[in-house]
Automatic annotation (TrEMBL):
Localization annotation: Cell outer membrane
Keywords for this protein: Cell outer membrane, Membrane, Receptor, TonB box, Transmembrane, Transmembrane beta strand, Transport
Organism: Chryseobacterium joostei
Domain TonB-dependent receptor-like beta-barrel: 342-774
Domain TonB-dependent receptor plug: 43-165
PANTHER family linked to this entry: PTHR47234, SECRETIN_TONB SHORT N-TERMINAL DOMAIN-CONTAINING PROTEIN
Chief site of localization: membrane
Membership in a protein family: Belongs to the TonB-dependent receptor family.
GO cellular component: cell outer membrane
Designated name of the protein: Iron complex outermembrane recepter protein
Membrane topology: Multi-pass membrane protein
Upper classification of the organism: Bacteria, Pseudomonadati, Bacteroidota, Flavobacteriia, Flavobacteriales
PROSITE patterns reported for this sequence: TONB_DEPENDENT_REC_3
InterPro entries: Beta-barrel_TonB (IPR000531), Beta-barrel_TonB_sf (IPR036942), Plug_dom (IPR012910), Plug_dom_sf (IPR037066), TonB-dep_rcpt-like (IPR039426)
Length: 814
């Protein structure tokens, strides 16, 4: 496919709180929904930091095409990095805020709690052991703006809001708009297509509306391995010839020729997974009269992906059926992810009391399909495609919210009832079973000729199948006092009871004081909690991975805390995380068009839930202990294993300037975050080394695998029909620990530059061309020991491994 040719002139960024300031005075009009229940607040006078991202303005000129990718470049404390060869995680990007986990960020849609995915991240990526929310399920064409509350808010919204809250607000305008985007990486792969249309119409005579959005998108796979430049002995042949020096002395090409092969037979697909997605969303409101209105919103998303597992070599005779794959194979993990959400509610205003009753339903189902693989125990009779099962999560939330504004006071209170259900479904028998030489399921004493289950991803078996649910009930109260925008005080409290672990009571106090006009200080303190997700409590499976001793692929397992394995190893049942969150900062407007905020924070989390390292207790390989078919080389468990402390500071500086007949917006924004493990909770009776329970690699994921420093500096200049954008994003250094058979490596800081030039062809049509990472910056090359014998050239840290990406976009407004 022919590469796009892009001519780019300027570089810049549009960031967070500065995003609405392309026109003077705009930011005072941004009414904040998240973080308080007063309808009078703006982002200039909130007692805690809130960023407001105007999606129409930013998405028109930005290379990014999903909500999480946009936020990754406009909010420094937000991080999202695509993963590779990591099972389900490369189909749903983990997102983090202020250095915390994906499950410590609460996502709202139109102010209502959004469900999480059913996927547990367990492949030692960022967010390992956590369950997050998939922001990509919400089409960008449907979003009006995104509010990001950078402060703990569990006392207001309940579980998961330890690090902050992301509130996505759907469009409610009338009229029509559309967008067409095509893009391609600088290496002629990763081609992207996106087509979206949004249509809004009035309902009735009292400002009712219905807004519909349809979006179709495609992202091609990328290859970022060594390819034809591989040292084959240092890569795929390392398994086969490492112990044979006579063969190892031969030339690579001679060996390939002798076997009648080509180098392509030994290529390893490593890079971004291919993703196709279709989404249909709606947002509506219908006033029956001046006091009473009905509303509803929601949508449907289907995502299909193809990712890749580790390559199986011809020499791995226990894993490879040579009659089917004489040259070995690399399995393809296919996903079908269905995400559905629907909310319906009614608002009634009587004597200035606003009553809001709603029901919000959401579900996420993740189906696994494995192809280009085999069940080695079936020999030549093995299928090459398998349905490997599924997991799903359902959440239904009933809310009653009541509020009233009395002069300078706002009073709010209400209640919530939430029901959650988690389910694992089995795959095809051949996807998980091991067969004997006669083709029957192997039992004790059977003779087998190969490893059972689908290679690369073993299917969920009947032993994994479960269906668990729980419910919770909460009541809250929220009071705020505003004195002429000089003094703001918020007090909130929340009591919550869970059917599976008990009660939680949390509170929050936030204050803002403007001691001189345009100069204010603000601070907040609060407690929080996060209930263990049903996924963390009950997820269990077997999976293929590199042996802890290296040089071979083996079966490992994840056991839930109700399992026989957990009982034998003395693991406790999961309990809630608890937290204390403090923040303090100031806001300044020292000159016309200049806006500055600085906010420091500290977040202490006790009994943080993580997934352990690979525990190699011999009892896990004993069928008499764990049950026939559950035997694994090592096992992992979810545990309240650590306490952490996170400290950081956010800085945002924005300046609007009339220049040369146009409008120039200058932005500087940055975040510094440091997380430290302050204590370990090691079970007294467990007989395993500390490094296996929670070793250096797991500590690395918590403390140093994400950049501690992230910043952005840029320009956005509009003049006449032209708009010029440059966005320079600084990603600080990260450290990756390849324990147990790799080594510690430091990845140096990098700067990624985005550019675009937009032109208004007509009043209603805009054309924009540009690039993400125009200078083709990559993370440092991995050291050999961490690269899986030279295959993983780059680790998916900092900005990811896409490299330069060029795009063109047409925007229509009618």
């Amino acid at each position: 496919m022919k590469k796009l040719s892009i001519a780019v002139l300027l570089l810049g960024t549009i960031l967070t709180a500065a995003q609405e300031q392309e026109e003077k005075g705009k930011q005072i009009e941004d009414i904040i929904i998240v973080g308080n229940r007063s309808a009078k607040r703006t982002k200039l006078d909130t007692p805690v930091p809130v960023d407001v991202i105007n999606i129409d303005k930013i998405q028109k000129s930005s290379p990014q095409m999903t909500a999480q990718d946009l936020l990754n470049y406009v909010i420094p404390s937000f991080n999202s990095v695509r993963q590779s060869a990591s099972d389900g995680t490369e189909h749903i990007d983990p997102v983090t805020l202020r250095g915390m986990g994906p499950d410590q960020v609460l996502v709202l849609l139109n102010g209502k709690r959004r469900h999480t995915t059913s996927l547990v991240n367990y492949q030692n990526t960022v967010g390992n052991g956590s369950v997050g929310t998939d922001l990509s399920t919400i089409p960008i064409i449907a979003i009006e703006k995104i509010e990001v509350l950078r402060d703990g808010a569990a006392a207001q919204y309940g579980s998961d809001a330890i690090a902050g809250v992301i509130n996505i607000i759907l469009k409610k305008n009338t009229g029509a708009s559309a967008s067409l985007t095509y893009g391609l990486s600088g290496r002629n792969d990763g081609d992207t297509y996106q087509a979206g249309v949004n249509y809004g119409a009035s309902l009735g005579k009292n400002e009712g509306f219905v807004n519909l959005s349809l979006q179709l998108s495609h992202r091609g796979k990328t290859t970022r391995t060594q390819n034809h430049d591989l040292d084959i002995f240092g890569n795929n042949f390392a398994y086969e010839f490492a112990d044979n020096p006579d063969i190892a002395r031969k030339n690579d090409d001679d060996i390939i020729k002798e076997r009648g092969l080509t180098r392509d037979d030994f290529n390893f697909q490593v890079g971004d997974a291919q993703i196709r997605q279709g989404q249909l969303f709606f947002n509506s409101e219908y006033p029956l009269n001046e006091q009473f209105k009905l509303y509803s919103f929601g949508g449907f998303s289907i995502k299909e992906g193809n990712g890749y597992g580790f390559r199986r070599l011809p020499s791995e005779t226990s894993n490879v059926v040579s009659s089917i794959y004489p040259n070995g194979f690399q399995a393809v993990l296919g996903s079908q992810i269905y995400d559905i959400s629907y909310a319906v509610g009614a608002k009634y205003n009587v004597n200035n009391w606003l009553i809001d009753l709603s029901n919000t339903l959401g579900s996420n189902t993740f189906n696994y399909n494995i192809s280009n693989t085999n069940n080695a125990s079936l020999g030549a009779k093995s299928p090459t495609r398998f349905y490997a099962g599924a997991h799903s999560f359902l959440q239904n939330t009933v809310n009653l919210d009541v509020s009233k504004n009395i002069k300078n006071f706002n009073i709010a209170f209400g209640g919530e009832f939430r029901f959650e259900q988690y389910q694992i479904k089995a795959g095809d028998e051949a996807s998980y079973a091991q067969y004997d030489v006669n083709g029957n399921i192997a039992v004790d004493g059977s003779t087998v000729s190969g490893v059972g289950g689908a290679q690369s991803f073993i299917g969920f078996s009947p032993r994994n199948v479960l269906k668990k649910d729980r419910h919770s009930t909460a009541v809250y109260a929220d009071f705020s006092y505003d004195l002429d925008k000089k003094l703001n005080i918020d007090v909130a409290g929340r009591f919550e009871n869970y059917s599976d672990f008990g009660n939680s009571l949390n509170g929050k106090l936030a204050i803002r004081y403007e001691f001189v006009k345009n100069y204010a200080v603000r601070a907040a303190v609060g407690t929080g909690f996060r209930a263990p997700s049903l996924q963390q409590q009950y997820f269990n499976n077997s999976y293929a991975d590199i042996s802890t001793t290296g040089l071979k692929i083996v079966t490992k397992g994840i056991f839930n805390n109700d399992s026989k394995a957990a009982e034998v190893l003395n693991f406790d049942r999961l309990k809630q995380e608890t937290s204390v969150n403090g923040s303090a900062g100031f806001t300044l407007k020292p000159a016309k068009g200049l806006f500055i905020t600085v906010d420091g924070y500290i977040i202490k989390v006790k009994d943080r839930i993580v997934i352990t390292g690979n525990i190699t207790d011999p009892r896990l390989s004993d069928p008499n202990v764990v049950g026939k078919g559950n035997e694994v080389e090592s096992g992992r468990f979810f545990a309240n294993a650590i306490d952490t402390e996170t400290k950081g500071v956010d800085v945002v500086v924005s300046y609007d300037w009339k220049l040369g007949g146009g409008n120039l917006n200058v932005n500087l924004a940055g975040n510094y975050t440091e997380t430290k493990i302050t204590d370990f909770h090691f079970p007294e009776n467990i007989n395993t080394p500390r490094d296996q329970y929670f070793g250096p690699d797991q500590i690395n994921i918590i403390e140093t695998l994400s950049p501690k420093t992230k910043a952005s500096l840029g320009l956005n200049y509009g003049i006449g029909k032209f708009n010029f954008l440059v966005r320079n994003t600084y990603f600080g250094k990260v450290i990756r620990d390849g324990f147990p058979f790799g080594e510690v490596q430091e990845f140096s800081p990098k700067v990624v530059t985005d550019v675009s030039v937009g032109y208004d062809i007509t009043k209603n049509i805009n054309f924009t061309i540009g690039a993400n990472n125009v200078l083709d910056v990559f993370p440092d090359l991995q050291v050999y020991k961490n690269s899986y014998y030279g295959v993983f050239k780059y680790a998916p840290v900092q900005m990811g491994t896409l490299g330069s990406y060029f795009f063109g976009r047409l925007n229509f407004n009618f």
